[in-house]
Amino acid sequence: MMKGLKKWRLFSLLAVLTVFLAGCGQEELSTLLPAGQVGKDQFKLLMLSSGIMLFVILVVVAIYVVALIRFRRSKLGEDFIPEQVEGSHKLELVWTIIPIILIIILAVPTVYYTYKLGDVKAMEEVNDDGKAKHLVVDVTAKLYWWEFEYPELGIVTAQELVVPTKEKIYFNLKAADVKHSFWIPAIGGKMDTNVENLNKFYLTFDKESEGLKDGVFYGKCAELCGPSHSLMDFKVKTLPRDEFNAWAKNMKATEDAKSVANANADGEKVFQASCATCHAVSGAGQGGAPGPNLASFGDRNRVAGFLEHNEKDLKEWIKNPQKVKPGNTMPSFENQLSDQELDDLAEYLLGLSVEQ
Amino acid sequence: MSSVAQKRGFGAALWDWMTTVDHKKIGILYLIGGGFFFVVGGIEAMIIRLQLLKPNNDLVSAGLFNDLITMHGTTMIFLAAMPILFGFMNYIMPLQIGARDVAFPFINSLGFWMFFLGGVFLNVSWFFGQVPDAGWTSYASLSLASPGHGIDFYAIGLQIAGGGTLMGGINFLVTIINMRAPGMTYMRMPLFTWTTFVASAMILFAFPPLTVGLFFLTFDRMFDANFFDHQMGGNTIIWEHIFWIFGHPEVYILILPAFGIFSEIFSIFSRKRLFGYPAMVFATVLIGFLGFMVWAHHMFTVGLGPTANAIFAVATMAIAVPTGVKIFNWLLTIWGGSIVMTTPMLYALGFIPSFVMGGVTGVMQGAAPLDYQLHDSYFIVAHFHYVIVGGVVLAILAGVHLYWPKMFGTMLSETLGKITFVFFFVGFHCTFLIQHWLGFWGMPRRVWTYMDGQGWNTANLISSIGALLMAIGVIVMVINIIMTTVKNVRVGNDPWGDGRTLEWAIPSPPPFYNFTQTPLVRGLDTVWIEKQEGNATGLTFAEPITDIHMPHGSIIPFFMTVGLFIAGFGAMYHQETSWGLPLLIFGLAWTFVSMAMRSLKDDLGYHVTKEEIQADINNASKGGQN
Fold first, then answer.
1. Per-residue confidence band for B21, with pLDDT thresholds at 50, 70 and 90
2. Pairing mode, strands A160-164 and A234-239
3. What does DSSP say about strands A302-303 and A307-308: parallel, antiparallel, or unpaired?
4. What is the residue range of B285's domain?
5. Which residue of A has its CA nearest to B133?
6. What is the nearest CA distance from A345 to chain B, expressed in angstroms?
7. What angle do CA B472, A9, B438 make, to 5 degrees?
């Protein structure tokens, strides 16, 4: 009996381990494969707390199983009347003090990391020439897309956050309409974008996104914000610092371009007539536009944050955005653009690029 | 009494139930009402899991999905779990303390009707096609932006239902403080009565914040106030605080009575006194206190700053200590006992590992920096279903099997009960265990659908299959209830054989006045003590047979609530229609007139005479059980 039980326990332990090891998820969006200091700190806490909790579970289950085996009425007989034990002060003390110790073991690093991850003083630091020492990104969450503004660099982009690796990036988080929450699972925990105040936090990106499945990390909206909450994805491209600088320079260079080089001229006309009131194709300037900035649209990984990045899906999206992403603020162009105009527009949009 | 009612016509029986002020009948009404909403919420859950069965599914639209998750959460918490527990509290608690009814039978009835019509009001939204869609938490920026009347149904429906709950809580408190039988000191109260007491005290302090919050929301949406509109100087974070100042104690209001039910079960089916009773009571009270001091752990990612987060993180972890004390005392209760595997005991034994897992994931989320990752992911969905289903729902199912014979005089089939347990228990773990990993793998909660290629497909499929198993379990239980009712095999006072508290020493179901004579309580588990000392009835009486003073039934509670129900529609439509405002005034006037009738008309009740009681006793001793 006991031998069989031991085997069974070993087996279940192995099964749990297998599930656990196989269950690390996908690199671009799993919290179990952290690719930044914040995520790694949180992962350490996860391991510590899981360890403590596994210990608690094992103790409880051990007592439980033994009690169930030893004290069955079928074994003890129908007429057996157990001793009516009142309790034990000693035992009560034991199972009060040991949990308190376990909790202290968990509480100390918790408090330490809470302050460590909440430290955003460096955001205000400036160089001798008055420029911010660290890269600051202003994130504005809107129904249902993300705007990323780099105030020091004078550029703005949307849906795809581009950041340099191996340095602290500070974020100002805000929502323009209803509350959202900014979450890049593989990089670090989330923070809400509130409607009435600015939230600040930092993340570091240790790994270049190029090697990942889609070449990007996945970002999510984590607060229910309406019908298309589940479609409010964004992507994160992480580049070495010099490549990031080049990207920023190219973005800035789109400032004066009245028309985009090598672009589909007909498509550009359609864009100017139908889209330009809400969307900019210049990556320079400030945020706050009604629609996502499209300066680097051709470089992006997804249409509307989640559709495949191809002409067919793009046209589908432009024709009927409400069908694809209900509740967003983009009007439908199904009856306003001819097929030819749509083709031209799609070609033009997919040609918008700042990466050479 | 109930058999008399059955022989009358349907109309008379309906009138009897609608006017009843008997705590036992109201308890049954709560169980029926809560059971109905449990099925409704369960169907909503099944549709949710079907939608998430595979990636890019479009079984339901995005908008309808948000309706479903909102109504599932709201229904299960406010209209299923709370009322069903209220049903047990209503039925069992007065019996456990040797009382003839609750302190305020009229208010008890009013509380039930407010819950029920409030719940109906909320669910009527389905027929209007404008359903609450901002989640059961209804965070302010989204709930203010939500078009249509969905959120109005939420605010007014919960306001009415919440009022009923508050009345019930106060009623239980007064009952326990004032109406205990002679000798029933606080430290001799059965643990279910204790948990009812602490949960009621928590209701007293937790529901007023909800009332205030819902009024703010109502006024913002329907009367142009700006409590939460940040563009007009309001603040949405205030709603989050108010909601969770209510919302966190609420989960302890749910789990404490569940603890109470399991404490009774462990004791009865191990034939052993509850281990460390004073520690159990102290832990219950401590959980009640700490429950009010941790609400901001729902708001770690809101940006309250590291100091607030650190304080609430440590406070949250502290709750694990009294909860752990309870778990170990239960383990030591069965340790050295004589465990028999009845259906209620199976649920209780299933509860321990399930709830421990839910508890430890709670502590993990108490670690604020880790919560930044877990918050609003599927991990939290797994966590709160482990505590609410693994704790509260298992307790409810256990309680149904345990107290069914006491309430209806028939025994649910043990075989079918065990089948229910196996399906439900396996299905529950199958549904929710894997969801912890979905959270780790980056899946946010409340998502209508998910793209392929994120590694979530298999886990979601497993989860949906588990939900199906749970549904099968519940269906088997419904079949069990129907079969048992049809067979109608009557049972005696103590069908489980090892009852320890007063309710097991009176007939099943008890006479409408509960106790022929008020019992004398000689210790914890008084019936057990009496029986061990050779008193086969389990009761020693504290008084001779005397006339019993009983209250009359009344339809006024129902009418009072109907007025509020009507006024709710008036408030909702007063901005866009001309009849809204008159309807609002009419509804409120209706309620006030009903209240005036109650106040102005003296109802002194009636007496059950000595002779009638003596006749009942003779009848019972002649073998009138069957």
1. very high
2. parallel
3. antiparallel
4. 17-543
5. A226
6. 26
7. 50
CB contacts, 8 Å: A213 with chain B: 453
Q: Which residue of A has its CA nearest to B435?
A: A23
Q: What confidence tier does A334 reach under pLDDT thresholds 50, 70, 90?
A: confident
- The pLDDT tens digits for A100-146 are 999 999 999 999 999 999 999 999 888 888 788 899 999 999 999 99
Q: Which of A61, A95, A186 sits opposite B325 (nearest CB)?
A: A95
The percent helix, strand, coil of chain B (3-state, each to 5) is: 70, 0, 25
Provide the 3-class DSSP secondary structure of residue B490.
Answer: strand
Residue owning tokens 């281990």: B275
b/e code B348-372 from CB counts within 10 Å (16+ = b)? bbbbbbbbbbbbbbbbbbbbbbbbb
Is B610 a domain residue?
A: no
Mutation target vs B (from A54, A119, A230; most B CBs, 10 A cutoff): A230
Q: pLDDT-based confidence at A22, cuts 50/70/90?
A: low
Q: Minimal CA–CA distance to B551: which of B21, B168, B27, B176?
A: B21
pLDDT in tens, B248-289: 999 999 999 999 999 999 999 999 999 999 999 999 999 999
* Whether complex ipTM tops 0.90: yes
What is the domain-level CATH number for residue B537? Answer: 1.20.210.10
| Residue B622 covered by a domain | no
pLDDT tens, residue by residue, A155-191: 999 999 999 999 999 999 999 999 999 999 999 999 9
Q: Based on the number of CB atoms within 10 Å of its own CB, is A121 exposed (0-12), middle (13-18) or buried (19 or more)?
A: exposed
Give me the residue label for tokens 């383990």.
B331
Residue B522 belongs to some domain of the structure? yes
Least Cα separation, residue B301 to chain A (angstroms): 5
CA distance B296 to B244: 7
Pick from B277, B336, B445: CB nearest A71: B336
Q: Chain B neighbours among A 119-158 (CB < 8 Å)?
A: 119
Give the separation between CA B444 and CA B423, rounded to whole angstroms.
Answer: 28
Q: Angle at the Cα of B7 (from B5 to B13), degrees rounded to 5? A: 45
Q: Distance (Å, rounded) from C-alpha A68 to C-alpha A194?
A: 51
Q: How confident is the model at residue B3 (pLDDT cuts 50, 70, 90)?
A: very low
**Assigned domain for B2 exists:** no
Nearest to A190 among B272, B352, B375 (CB): B375
DSSP string of A164-229, one letter each residue: ESSSEEEEEEEESSS-EEEEETTTEEEEEE-SSS-EEEEEE--S-GGGSSSSSEEEEE-S--SGGG
Look at residue B2 in the predicted model and tell me its pLDDT. Answer: 45
- CB atoms < 10 A from the CB of B454, how many? 20
Six token digits for residue A271:
């864009």
Superfamily of domain A132-356: Cupredoxins -  blue copper proteins (2.60.40.420)
- Enumerate the domain spans of chain A: 27-68+89-117, 132-356
Q: Within its chain, how far is the Cα of A109 from the centroid? A: 24
* DSSP string computed for A243-257: HHHHHHHHHHHTTT-
H/E segment holding residue B607: strand B606-608
CA distance A271 to A151: 27
Tokens representing B25? 């009948």
Question: Which residues make beta-bridge pairs with B548?
Answer: B608
Residue B16 structure tokens: 């009897």
The tally of domains found in chain B comes to 1
**pLDDT of B101-133, one tens digit each?**
999 999 999 999 999 999 999 999 999 999 999
Long-range contact set of residues B612-615: C-beta below 8 Å, sequence gap at least 24: B613/B513, B613/B516, B613/B545, B613/B548, B614/B545
Q: What is the mean pLDDT of residues A247-262?
A: 76
CA atoms of B356 and A196, how far apart (whole Å)? 39
